Structures are given as structure tokens and as C-alpha cells.
Automatic annotation (TrEMBL):
Organism: Pseudonocardia broussonetiae
Keyword terms: ATP-binding, Nucleotide-binding, Transcription, Transcription regulation
Source organism, top-level taxon: Bacteria
This protein's name: Sigma-54 factor interaction domain-containing protein
Lineage, uppermost ranks: Bacteria, Bacillati, Actinomycetota, Actinomycetes, Pseudonocardiales
Gene3D superfamilies per record: 1.10.8.60, 3.30.450.40, Homeodomain-like
A family per Pfam: HTH_8
GO terms of molecular function: ATP binding; sequence-specific DNA binding
Presence of the UniProt keyword Transcription in the record: yes
Length: 564
């Protein structure tokens, strides 16, 4: 059993070996979440205590409580977020102890709030969690042992809550896990019995389809979706699918529909008493990228482009139009393809001067600019946002003195939709330069798919991404934008063992995106702001919450929701 000394060594920065691996991993998560090991104020959330799950589960929990009367233990039930919805404890002294620890209805024991604990860790890992005494991350819980397990709905397979048994650490015994498992089994059976005949019929259809193969499978009904992990990773929208299925009802019981990201699905209606009850949706893997003819040498430098109607092509047309009229500046986040787009906008190869090197010898850099302006070739000033005020003023003076300018373009790094720093703006305004803003990739799954397809055609002819890998690529935030996407696709194509690039072939940070559900545009915007503020404060959640104007509890909840 983990000792207090082991816990103290971990809190002092060591990595103790005399602790169970699952506990050590949870401790690391707790530390990363910013949980205070010395004290934690367990958050009280507005929790619905009268849910369908609670109505089904509480009678079973009460039946077990009747068998435990006189025993020094506590039974508790939580919802899927870790908030306690029901508690029973018979011994007054243990009740007082647990009251002091906030093991009471309405208080939330999510691991990101409270650290390693039975309820929170079981919900985090999706399995049985046994947390004995000083294995709790927060010291004030070291006098108790908690054993908990999540409850998955037998029809939807979603976690709907968790069962927990607590006792004094000195009373820890192996029967606690037996009690928890028995309660979970009985609650699942009761949930199945409470399900409607239609839901059970759809579940049977889902299980039958599952046995036929291992691809993404979902069953959709009115108000219901059951999906295996591969289908869940695709972020299928139940309402959209249901609308598609309803539209097919006159077209027979077996049809095909198109899904986002160039995916297709076979739809087979499920009937109950002759009437449609729902449909089995079997998703096909993403098709292999088509062969594309090689582009002319100069145009091959352009970043991966989507179809002619894409945002990239619209930006390229605007850049070419502006470049034909006078100076043009391309703005965007790092890696969005600013230099590539601007290079393609000129009729001849430009002379490129990177402002990142100006700091090494400003006078020599300005001399090279002066010489370039005397020639006929276009001039491209890259990264002008890196010019300090003095260098920017010197560049402005040279441009003013040059008279007739050759085709001139500038690139500057700027946040999405924002203007660059004042010295650069003065330089741009002095040139009366037209501007093109390149949008980042995050939150634009269609653009991500288009650029991925183009990059894959360039680096991996005949290859395709598995459905879960495709979903991860679409959901990842791509902080490095096109440059990062090109690198990821190139490396994945190079290392692929067969014709299909699987999820395991992607970097860890991209794989992590596969676990996220699909976010709405508003949620994506909020997640982006929170991620940006967290980066600014080096992950310090207290400072981030203060700047965002929300509580730490609310911040933790959003971090968990958006899997930041």
C-alpha cells in the first residue's frame, strides 16, 4: 500500500517506484490540472438529482444499503460528470467525516477538480478505480479508501454515472470491489429493462452489424444514437444523420449517403412491426487520394490547394490582383502559407529578403534591399513583423527614395484577423499596400481535408487515412497551420506500413484530438480563446481563469469538455 512518505516524495518532485502505475499516472494528471495537494475546495455544482439514471439506480443502491446497515461504509452514486446525486452512510462518525470532505449530494469529484479519488478517477479512466488512503492526491482524503466504477448504459454505451463505496482507510478490504461490480451489473440490467422495446431492437441490430466487421458502425433512431468507438471518433451528428435517413424512407431499406470529409456510408433501415424504427449506418473508410498530374515547376511551390472555389484559391486570386496593381502584404498566423501564396502571385521569381536576418547586420540588410529595388525582379520582404521600429523606419525611407518600385510584396505574422504591430502598420500604410489575410486551419475541417488530400497526393500516392486518423486530422487545432499539416502528412506517408495510414501513425498531439467530440463554431471559438490564454500563462489555470473572468471550477470544466 502506498505510504504517506511515498506521497510526500511525489509532492517534492520525485517519481516514486513504490506506487501503483495507475495511481502515479493519476497523480501526474492531478498535478497537471493544478490541484492543490494540501487542500482543495470541492466545487458544488447545480446538479439534477432526479435523472432517469438516478431513478433506476437508487433503488438498487438502497437495497445494498439495507445489507450494509451497521457496517462502517458509505455508498454513493454520481452522474457522468462526477457530481454526487445520492449518498448513504449509516455510521454517524463516518457520516461526519464524509460531510467534512464534501462527499454530499451536489458536490463534484471530477479528477480535474479534486485529484485522484474513486469517483473522479473511475470516470477519467473508464474502469474500476481503487484509491486507498494516501493514494488520494489531496491529503485531507488520506483517512479514507474509495472504490468506484463507471456505469455504461447498455443501449447507448455511454457513461451515465458511477458507483462508489467509501470506508476508513484502516478498514480497506477486497470485498469493496466486489460490491461495486455487483452494483454496476445490477444497475446496467435495470437500465436495459427500463429501455423501450424500440431501443432494445436497435441495440440488437447494432450488435449484429458489429459482429460482421470492425469498421465504424452506428445505429440512429429518433432521439437515439449508438456508435462504436470508430464511429464516435468521426463526430457523426445524430440530427443530421436522422434527417438523411428520413429522406431515404421512400428509397428502399438499403441505400448509401454522403458524409462530411469525403466519407460514404451504407444505411440499412431497421423495422419494428413493419414500421421504420431507425437505421444501421456503416461508414466506409476514406477513399484513397486521387492521382494528380504534376504542376508546372513554379506553381508546384504553392501550398496545398483545395478546389478552385476554396478560401485558399480566393486568397490567391486576390493576391495576384493586388500584386498587379501595386504593393501587397499577406497577413496570417505562422505556417499559413504567406510566402508561398505571395511568391505564386508574381509573374517572375522574386528576390526574397527575410527580415529575421536583419537583426544580424541591419545596415547590410537595408543595402541588399536597396540593391534589389534597383532590379527588375519582384521583391518579397518576408517576416516584416520582426523588424524593430528603427529597422522599419529605415526600410520605409529606402522605399520612399526608390521612386518607381518593382513588384513588391510583404508578409507579416499576425493573429487571425488582427493587425501587426504599429511600426509594421506604418510601413504598410506608407506603401498604400493592399492586404490579404490567410485564415488559420483550426475549426475549418473542410479546408483541413482538402489540404490533407493534396499533401497526401504529393507525398503518398495510393495511400489513404483510416477513418479514426481522418477524424483526428480534422479535429486537431493545427497551431502550425499548413506547415505543420504538411510535415505530419509527409512523415505519416513515409512511415506507413501499408496502404492505409492508421491513427497510431500520427503524432501524439494529433492522436489526442481523436478523443474530442465535434465542436460547434461557437465552442471552437471559445476553446481557441481558452487555449490561447492558457498558453500565455504557461498553463497556470488560476491566472488564466482570472484573465478569462471565470472561476477555476468553470475553467476546469471547459478544459475537460474541450479536452484542451
Amino acid at each position: 500500500m502506498t505510504t504517506t512518505r511515498t506521497w510526500e516524495r511525489f509532492q517534492a518532485g520525485e517519481e516514486p517506484r513504490d506506487v501503483r502505475a495507475e495511481v502515479l499516472t493519476s497523480w501526474r494528471r492531478s498535478r497537471f490540472s493544478g490541484v492543490d495537494p494540501e487542500y482543495v475546495d470541492v466545487p458544488y455544482l447545480e446538479t439534477d438529482l432526479d435523472t432517469h439514471f438516478a431513478r433506476v439506480a437508487v433503488p438498487i443502491m438502497t437495497g445494498m444499503a439495507d445489507l450494509l446497515v451497521g457496517d462502517s461504509s458509505c455508498l454513493a452514486l454520481s452522474d457522468a460528470s462526477g457530481s454526487v446525486v445520492w449518498r448513504w452512510v449509516s455510521e454517524p462518525m463516518l457520516r461526519n467525516t464524509l460531510d467534512g470532505l464534501s462527499v454530499v449530494e451536489g458536490f463534484c469529484f471530477n479528477e480535474e477538480f479534486v485529484g485522484t479519488n474513486g469517483l473522479g478517477t473511475a470516470l477519467e479512466t473508464g474502469g474500476l478505480a481503487v484509491v486507498r488512503g494516501s493514494e488520494h492526491f489531496v491529503q485531507r482524503f488520506h483517512d479514507v479508501t474509495c472504490v468506484a466504477a463507471p456505469v455504461r448504459h447498455p443501449v447507448t454505451r455511454r457513461v451515465v454515472g458511477a458507483v462508489n463505496v467509501t470506508c476508513r482507510a484502516a478498514d480497506t478490504n477486497s470485498l469493496l470491489a466486489v460490491v461495486v461490480r455487483k452494483l454496476v451489473e445490477e444497475i446496467r440490467a435495470a437500465l436495459y429493462d427500463a429501455a423501450t422495446a424500440r431501443e432494445r431492437h436497435l441495440l440488437s441490430a447494432f450488435l449484429e452489424e458489429q459482429r460482421r466487421g470492425g469498421g465504424p458502425v452506428a445505429v440512429v433512431g429518433d432521439g437515439l444514437i449508438i456508435a462504436n468507438p470508430q464511429a464516435a471518433d468521426l463526430g457523426l451528428d445524430r440530427l443530421d444523420l436522422w434527417d438523411e435517413i428520413r429522406a431515404l424512407r421512400g428509397a428502399g431499406d438499403d441505400a448509401r449517403i454522403a458524409l462530411p470529409a469525403d466519407l460514404t456510408a451504407r444505411v440499412r433501415l431497421v423495422r419494428e412491426a413493419g414500421a421504420p424504427a431507425g437505421a444501421v449506418v456503416t461508414v466506409a473508410e476514406a477513399a484513397a487520394s486521387p492521382e494528380v498530374p504534376p504542376a508546372p515547376a513554379r506553381r508546384a511551390r504553392r501550398a496545398a490547394a483545395a478546389d478552385p472555389g476554396s478560401e485558399w484559391e480566393a486568397a490567391a486570386r486576390r493576391a495576384r490582383s493586388l500584386a498587379a496593381q501595386g504593393p501587397v502584404v499577406v497577413l496570417g498566423e505562422p505556417g499559413t502559407g504567406k510566402r508561398t501564396l505571395l511568391t505564386a502571385a508574381f509573374d517572375a521569381d522574386p528576390v526574397v529578403l527575410d527580415a529575421a536576418t536583419c537583426v544580424l547586420d541591419p545596415a547590410a540588410w537595408v543595402d541588399r534591399l536597396r540593391a534589389a529595388l534597383d532590379g527588375p525582379a519582384p521583391v518579397l520582404l518576408h517576416h516584416v513583423d520582426l523588424l524593430d521600429a528603427g529597422a522599419a523606419a529605415a526600410v520605409s525611407a529606402v522605399l520612399d527614395a526608390a521612386g518607381a518600385l518593382p513588384p513588391l510584396g510583404l508578409t507579416a505574422t499576425a493573429a487571425d484577423g488582427a493587425a501587426p504591430a504599429a511600426p509594421v502598420m506604418r510601413l504598410v500604410d506608407g506603401l498604400a499596400a493592399g492586404s490579404v489575410h490567410l485564415a488559420p486551419l483550426r475549426g475549418r475541417p473542410d479546408a483541413i481535408v482538402a489540404h490533407t488530400r493534396s499533401e497526401l497526393a504529393r507525398h503518398g500516392r495510393g495511400l489513404s487515412f483510416a477513418a479514426d486518423a481522418h477524424a483526428a486530422l480534422r479535429r486537431y487545432d493545427w497551431p502550425g497551420n499548413l506547415a505543420e499539416l504538411a510535415r505530419v502528412v509527409r512523415d505519416a506517408a513515409r512511415d506507413a506500413d501499408g496502404p492505409t495510414i492508421v491513427l497510431a501513425g500520427l503524432p501524439a498531439e494529433v492522436r489526442g484530438a481523436a478523443e474530442r467530440r465535434a465542436l460547434s463554431p461557437i465552442e471552437r471559438a471559445e476553446a481557441g480563446v481558452i487555449a490561447s490564454v492558457l498558453r500565455e500563462h504557461d498553463g497556470n489555470k488560476s491566472l488564466a481563469a482570472r484573465e478569462l473572468g471565470i472561476s477555476r471550477t468553470a475553467l476546469y470544466s471547459k478544459i475537460r469538455t474541450y479536452r484542451l
